[in-house]
Amino acid sequence: MALACSTATAALAASGAIDVDRMAAAGVRMLPGRHLRLFTDLPARDAVDELPAVFDAAVPQWAAAFGVQPADCATWRVDGFLIKDRATFAALGVMPSEHPDFENGFARKDRLWLVEQPSDYYRRHLLLHEGTHAFMLSFLGGAGPGWYMEGTAELFGSHARQRDGKLQLDVFPASRDAVPMWGRVKILRDAAAADASWPLDAVLELDNSRAVGVEGYAWSWALAALLDNHPQFHDRFRKLARVADRPNFNRRFRQAIGADWGDLQCEWRAYAASVDYGYDFARMAMVHREPRDFAAAQAAATIRADRGWQSTGIVLPAGGKYRIAAAGRYVIAEDEQTGEPWPCEPGGVTLRWHAGRPLGELLAALRPLTSLAGGQRPRRADSGSSPAHRSFLPDFAHPQPIGLAATITAATDSVLYLRVNDAPAELAENSGEVDVTVVAD
Ligand SMILES: [Zn+2]
């Protein structure tokens, strides 16, 4: 489902007064709250009438996330319109004059508009999305370029209720059932399956000059979620709120990532190809190591079964062929009925597959050494190479199966990364290690 919204960064001016009596005469109910007064032509229902309370519960979470003092937003008030019939609100003269034909939602710093959505989750999500825009426009003086503005609004629109009923914003969805009709993860999965995931630079090119589009929303959210949940990038991502009103936002973002830009590119490539519900950011975060020359004829490394990509630190010189051999016994899953651990060796198990390969199979990817220098982009696996070489250039989106043993060829000086094949939501039940040796072939 589309969640196209647009936010006029120019629309920072305060909105005019609302004639509450006229609204009531037209059959529009007013739902009062501390921070949000919501006008709607929808009939009374718990899932609608609770929305001002949902908004009120979000305000302190936005404040904490964006570094705003609670006292500064204590008296913040927004008027909202939840719209079933656009004509009713148009006749009342309360549609946004700068963008009356908005698709699903629109926000100014003190007013927001939502069109009724097909699920209770999605309606709340859209309110929180537009509310994030309004909060940023009110307290940060701007919301940054398209990717950051929409990515952040989607990040704080994604929510769940805790066991005690408390609303929690910034929740990466655990399952499809947790976010009915939202559809963002499906867009990402479909793109990955078609080998058409957006490169990081394509996401960063989403500015405020054109509509972001449905795919753009999905990839903007994906990037915001990676940066926000990744231990290496979380703090720097959160600090971007301080420059949300600056025209040179992207340059500041690149400066903030600095020498880790190559790491971010690798992380993005692996993540964009595998992102899914329940993605375990902590365990999927790549483990990098100081590169060491493949000086001797042999090198060794140990890889954990409960992590994503891990550097061996071993630099494979360009043009060489290398024989990788693996041994070890580890746990790759727990039996769904009995909870018994599933033992596994580097060849993987044949009872269950993931991403078209046996679960638990050892996989390899090569990271060009140039991408470790900082700032430089790792080459795409297939760029500038002859078709004959393509199958020998595994990268994080197209790893090479190793299993118990295989030969790998490095087209350029590259660091060897390894992992065992598993779903990014299912690493917590793994344990144990794989021992690997690499010899020149
Ligand atoms: Zn938006």
Q: How would you briefly describe this protein structure?
A:
The chain has helices at residues 20-25, 46-49, 51-66, 86-91, 120-139, 146-157, 184-193, 200-204, 213-229, 234-239, 249-257, 261-274, 281-284, 387-390, and strands spanning 5-7, 29-31, 36-40, 78-83, 105-107, 111-115, 159-161, 167-169, 292-293, 298-304, 310-316, 321-327, 330-334, 341-344, 349-354, 357-359, 362-368, 400-401, 405-409, 414-420, 433-440.
**Which small molecules are bound?**
zinc ion
> Quick one: how many beta strands?
21
The largest sheet has its strands arranged as 1-5-6-4-3-2
Return the average pLDDT rounded to an integer.
91
Cα-atom Rg, whole angstroms?
Answer: 25 Å
| Helical segment count | 14
Category by helix and strand content: alpha+beta
Gross morphology: elongated
**Quaternary class:** single chain
Our estimate of the beta-strand percent is 15-25%
C-alpha termini separation? 52 Å
Low-confidence stretches: 8-13, 375-392
Sheet with the most strands? 6 strands, mixed
Q: In percent, how helical is the residue content?
A: 25-40%
**CATH fold label of the largest domain:** Neutral Protease, domain 2
- Specify the CATH architecture of the largest domain: Orthogonal Bundle
CATH class of the largest domain: Mainly Alpha
Overall description:
- The protein has 441 residues and is of the alpha+beta class.
- It folds into two domains: 1-278, Neutral Protease, domain 2; 284-440, Jelly Rolls.
- The protein is 30% helix and 23% strand.
- It is built from 14 helices and 21 strands.
- It has helices spanning 20-25, 46-49, 51-66, 86-91, 120-139, 146-157, 184-193, 200-204, 213-229, 234-239, 249-257, 261-274, 281-284, 387-390, and strands at 5-7, 29-31, 36-40, 78-83, 105-107, 111-115, 159-161, 167-169, 292-293, 298-304, 310-316, 321-327, 330-334, 341-344, 349-354, 357-359, 362-368, 400-401, 405-409, 414-420, 433-440.
- The strands form six sheets. A six-stranded mixed sheet has the order 1-5-6-4-3-2. A five-stranded mixed sheet has the order 9-11-20-17-18, with no helix packed on it. A four-stranded antiparallel sheet has the order 10-21-12-19, with no helix packed on it.
- A hairpin with a 2-residue loop joins strand 15 and strand 16.
- Helix 3 (51-66) packs across helix 5 (120-139), helix 5 (120-139) packs across helix 6 (146-157) and helix 6 (146-157) crosses helix 9.
- The model is unreliable at 8-13 and 375-392 (pLDDT under 50).
- It binds zinc ion.
- The site of zinc ion has 6 residues, from strand 1, helix 5 and helix 6.
